[in-house]
Design a protein that fits this description.
Helix content is 53%, strand content 14%. The chain contains 25 helices and 24 strands.
Length: 892
């Protein structure tokens, strides 16, 4: 072995000996002894001679130590330069090899770029949505308290919890607020929150401009201050930085703008996420205690207090209150704020992350068997290099340089794909996914992409490199170019890699198939009404003369008459909260003639207030009885229409027409009709109790009290084509309303068809991603089996030529090659089926109308995979039967 090819430590020892410092010490001892002898010969004693010799040789020893240190540094520097030179040489050679075989290289880079890019993008989403803390101070200490983990609580409960618990530094409450912005050219209803003054300091978020609420809770005038969101400030006030101190008209009252919140501020993160403004919440001093309410309660844990301790503390207080006021504090749940914010999307995002991880594994397997094939083709070259003295480590290093360079190029492409994918995901994601606007590719994501690239390089490069470096010189040079050195081991390994691709692809296809069937089932859910050609908008009287109790009801009646007179409007009516919007008020009720239920156990129905003709406009079938009629006025007996679910649930086997219920314990309402069940918010949720009351008999709506000053218009329009010009008709309807009351706020203009699409937006989004990943996976699997079959045919060309020369039928050869591909796919499908049966159970919460182990879906995707295997092997098989036996035999 030449000196340059020796390891660094051997070159070091060959220069200095086995121990360079020992050599220096021996040399110094020799000179010391010689100097002592010289001094003794001059007449000094032994002790005097040693002292004189030490004084003489002291600086020499220091210089020798410095020489040793300098030489060691030089040796290390030379070693580093030699290593860097070897790496540069390996990379240059790898680049030449990849450039020479540019087509396989391009295919491998594309596979890696897709896998790394998709994985990096999904990791960015998961990191931003699930891992990153909420944008509040010490966000992990924030909690939320709700009835049943979902429902709001009453003001008396909040005040008692705040006063009696000892585990929280602060406790604050928020209430939904829908003020109408008036005094502008286009009055509209906004989404906002009223919050107790302690809320923003508790969150630790300061305004961009101005200040937070500083008035004492309950102080007169405190409720007439407002904080604007950044978006509202930009949209309505053009980003005027002198806005603080100016006034704005909300709900007909003058509010003072005290600040503007930062652009990134979002509160609350799980509810009313599109709030555009915040005002102080003034709690009533004598509110009635009940099981319901309108407040969401937030709190911050004291330092050193665990979540379990806080939950026990709140549980003790609510248990005491439940004993004192039965039915008011049942099932109060304390939840971490982050869990409440992201809990609903955790499972689907993790499923998508697993899916994209499978895509990356398939890409690595694909590139790995490409490198195995390349290593087999270079077997003789590597044998020659080994015979000339190249070590196995040197060969492995060279091959790893190729895979590393391949991974680096794929990683760069993957980063570009990740950048585009993240922007696309943010733009296409439905509004229900929290914090998606914060998803971005930053330094942490870049480091993540580099780490993924390095791991993939090791994953797909190490085994092929070790395989290729294991060279049998005798067998290689004896067999020459016949390729027998390929060996069954490498063939089995490549087949195993392709089988693993098919197994992973089947898992992805199974998940995508289940999501597709679930989405189709959602699409076929009967919402209970006909959403086609229905325009809808929220109309309010806030801030207008029509808000006066003497004019409020007449405004809606007159506006409806004007709307019905518009050409193209077939019918129109009002409802307080339209279906699919998710805005539902629930009221407990009691049935006449039955025992009075215990507090908190009475049935609760969704409270709907409608005008006559609502069911006809929405085409909601009346199953029995009648519709709300014009004769159902304030001086007529109170009536109600109930849903079919309510009738079956509370009067099974009976006719509910003529039965009576009460909502307030004193006024009895007669049931006059039963209508088809209507989806309230979520298409996947089962029906629940629903109660429709005439507008004219609801005192709060007739007089426009509080939040009852707005109604939702629904108007069915006539279409001459498949697509209506709803925009033009919406404009005419708005003009009709504004012609009656110029300042009437109008908002949430949409169509019921759009609301239906929005109701399926989230499953559609997850389905689209899973289908995209599954498509990439099956394409990569097809490429893999095509590559394996093509390589197998090229290696068997001599054998096939002999068989054809001996009279073998082309169909027999064709079937044998396809049978091999189907066998590999079958092995992968069997393994994938086992994994799929386990993995798809994790998707149970994402599915609707289909089982996670649905046999039809699994059989369909398996058949699809076998079809892909046959098609991918067909081209190499046809090429094989077209081999000219003479050419095949001559080539050997």
């Amino acid at each position: 072995m030449s000196k340059d090819s020796q390891p660094a430590w051997r070159r070091y020892l060959s220069f200095w000996g086995a121990n360079p410092r020992a050599d220096v010490d021996a040399e110094l001892r020799f000179h010391f002894e010689m100097r002592v002898r010289e001094y003794v010969a001059r007449g000094m004693s032994r002790a005097e001679a040693e002292r004189a010799a030490l004084a003489r040789l002291g600086n020499v020893r220091q210089a020798a130590e410095e020489v040793v240190t300098i030489d060691q540094r030089q040796a290390r520097t030379q070693d580093r330069l030699a290593i860097l030179g070897a790496i540069r040489q390996d990379l240059a050679f790898a680049a030449r090899m990849l450039r020479r075989e540019w087509m396989p290289t391009l295919l491998a880079v594309l596979c890696l770029a897709l896998g790394i890019g998709a994985t990096t993008a999904m990791l960015s989403v998961v990191r931003s949505v699930l891992i990153e803390p909420l944008p509040y101070r010490d966000a992990d200490q924030l909690v939320v308290a709700l009835h049943n983990g979902h429902n709001p609580v009453g003001a008396p409960n909040f005040l008692d919890w705040r006063a009696d618990t000892r585990s929280f530094t602060d406790m604050a409450a928020a209430e939904l607020w829908s003020p109408s912005l008036t005094g502008t050219d286009d009055p509209e209803e906004l989404t906002g929150l009223r919050i107790t003054p302690a809320m923003l300091p508790m969150l630790g978020v300061a305004p961009l401009l101005g200040r937070v609420f500083s008035t004492a809770e309950g102080q007169a005038g405190a409720e007439h201050e407002v904080l604007l969101s950044y978006a509202l400030w930009q949209r309505e006030f053009a980003g005027d930085r002198s806005i603080v101190g100016k006034s704005v008209m909300l709900d007909g009252h003058q509010y003072t703008i005290i600040g503007v919140m930062p652009a990134t501020f979002q509160f609350a993160p799980f509810w009313a996420t599109h709030s555009q403004l915040w005002a102080p919440l003034v709690l009533p001093a004598n509110a009635q205690r009940s099981s319901g309410g309108s407040l969401r309660v937030f709190a911050r844990l004291k330092p050193g207090v665990s979540f379990d301790q806080a939950r026990a503390d709140l549980g003790a207080v609510t248990s005491r209150l439940e004993r004192e006021y039965p039915g008011t504090n049942q099932d109060i749940q304390l939840l971490p704020l982050k869990e409440k914010a992201v809990g609903d999307v955790r499972t689907p995002l993790l499923v998508l992350l697993v899916a994209v991880g499978l895509v990356l594994l398939i890409a690595c397997a694909n590139v790995a068997h490409m490198l195995l094939a390349r290593g087999a083709a270079r077997h003789r070259e590597l044998a020659v290099r080994t015979a000339l003295g190249a070590t196995r480590r040197r060969i492995v290093g060279q091959l790893l340089a190729e895979s590393g360079l391949l991974a680096a190029i794929g990683g760069a492409g993957g980063l570009l794909i990740a950048l585009v994918s993240v922007r696309t995901l943010v733009a296409a994601s439905p509004a229900m996914i929290p914090r998606v606007a914060t998803v971005r590719v930053d330094g942490a994501v870049l480091a993540l992409a580099i780490a993924i690239t390095a791991l993939t390089a090791i994953a797909f490069g190490l085994v092929p490199a070790l395989r290729a470096a294991r060279v049998d010189l005798v067998e290689t040079f004896r067999d020459g170019d016949r390729g027998s050195s390929e060996g069954r081991g490498r063939g089995r390994l490549r087949s195993a890699l392709v089988a693993s691709e098919f197994a992973l692809a089947l898992v992805l296809l199974a998940g995508a198939g289940l999501m597709m069937r679930s989405f189709v089932a959602l699409q076929h859910v009967d919402p209970g009404f006909d959403p086609s050609n229905v325009v809808s908008m929220i109309v309010s009287t806030v801030g207008t003369p029509a808000a006066d109790s003497t004019r409020h009801a007449a405004f809606y009646v007159d506006a409806l008459a004007r709307i019905k007179a518009i050409p193209g409007v077939v019918d129109a009516s009002y409802i307080n909260h339209r279906p699919l919007d998710g805005d539902m008020w629930g009221f407990g009720f009691r049935i006449e003639g039955r025992p009075v239920p215990k507090p908190g156990t009475e049935p609760t129905a969704t409270y709907r207030v409608v005008f006559p003709g609502y069911f006809a406009t929405m085409r909601i079938p009346i199953i029995r009885g009648r519709d709300v009629a014009e004769t159902d006025r304030a001086n007529a007996p109170p009536v109600a229409v109930i849903s079919d679910y309510t009738a079956r649930e509370h009067w099974p086997g009976e006719d509910p027409i003529g039965k009576r219920i009460t909502l307030d314990g004193t006024t009895w309402v007669t049931i006059v009709g039963v209508v088809k069940n209507v989806v309230s918010a979520d298409l996947a949720e089962p029906p629940s109790d629903e109660l429709y009351l005439p507008f004219a008999q609801e005192h709060g709506y007739v007089n426009g009290i509080g939040a009852r000053r707005s109604m939702t218009l629904v108007a069915r329009v006539r279409c001459d084509h498949d697509e209506c010009d709803t925009g033009a008709l919406s404009g005419q309807i708005r003009s009709a309303i504004r012609g009656l009351e110029r300042g009437a706020p109008i908002s949430a203009v949409t169509t019921m068809s759009a609301l239906m699409r929005e109701a399926t937006a989230e499953p559609r989004f997850y389905l689209a991603l899973l289908v995209a990943f599954a498509t990439i996976a099956i394409a990569l699997a097809a490429v893999g089996i095509y590559a394996v079959m093509s390589y197998a045919v090229s290696r068997r060309s001599h054998e096939i030529g002999i068989r054809m020369a001996l009279g073998a039928e082309p169909s027999v050869v064709l079937r044998s090659i396809i049978r091999q591909a189907v066998f590999v796919a079958g092995v992968g499908a069997c393994a994938g089926m086992i994994v799929a049966l386990a993995v798809t159970r994790l998707m149970r919460g994402l599915l609707f109308g289909v089982s996670p182990t649905d046999g039809y879906t699994l059989a369909s995707v398996t058949a699809l995979l076998f079809g892909v295997a046959v098609l991918a092997s067909l081209v190499p098989a046809i090429r094989a039967v077209r081999i000219d036996p003479l050419i095949a035999l001559r080539s050997e």
